[in-house]
Amino acid sequence: MPGPLVVNDSVVIPDTELVWRFSRSSGPGGQGVNTTDSRVELTFDVAATTALPPVLKARALDRLGAATITVAASEYRSQLRNREAAAHRLAQRLREAIAPPPKRRRPTKPSRGAVERRITTKKHRSDLKRLRRNP
């Protein structure tokens, strides 16, 4: 599964900047569990990358709080499936880290008609409760 990691349309991480580590996975797996290195750790150094423009790199470092991202995958019995899962998770985390900030909320106030409807409803409810009381 070598090759670049596509984060979005404009960001592609070259394979040379990704560090893959393999180890034995814990949990059930039958006879092959003790012999196959199916657990995958994928590490990416955000601070040293050349794939991100300076603005996106600063945004990612600010949001992630760390210079390197390490993603582990061991839910599948096959190393290939775990590699795909780790690559997908890393791409997702990077997508979230470099996403533009959400638009600021523009404060609004209720319209005069909405305020009048609310007060009319409150008065109506008050009158109903007042009529239920004993004189």
UniProtKB/TrEMBL annotation:
It is an enzyme of class 3 (hydrolase). InterPro entries: Pep_chain_release_fac_I, Pep_chain_release_fac_I_sf. Pfam families: RF-1. Keywords: Hydrolase. Residues 120-135 have a biased composition (Basic residues). Residues 10-132 form the Prokaryotic-type class I peptide chain release factors domain. Residues 92-135 are annotated as: Disordered. Its EC number is 3.1.1.29. Gene3D superfamilies: 3.30.160.20. SUPFAM superfamilies: Release factor (SSF75620). GO terms for molecular function: peptidyl-tRNA hydrolase activity. Belongs to the prokaryotic/mitochondrial release factor family. This is Alternative ribosome rescue aminoacyl-tRNA hydrolase ArfB. It comes from Nonomuraea marmarensis. The gene is arfB.
